[in-house]
What we know:
Elements: E1 2-8, E2 11-16, E3 21-25, E4 38-39, H1 47-66
Antiparallel strand pairs: 1-2, 1-4, 2-3
Amino acid sequence: MFIIDRFEGRWAVIAAEDGMTFNLPRSVLPRDAGEGDVIILTATVDREATEKKKRGVQNLLADFFDA
Length: 67
């Protein structure tokens, strides 16, 4: 469980059940989220974007070493 502890400017300070805290950009939270609200965090991997980034890096390296 994660709870919005407080807001500090553009950041939301998030508290976990184990006492750990971390910051998230306020912009990634719903507009109506407030201090004390319990939030659910999920993460997904964007495989297409990952592959695009990898190809970009490979192209940069190829250009660099071919020059």
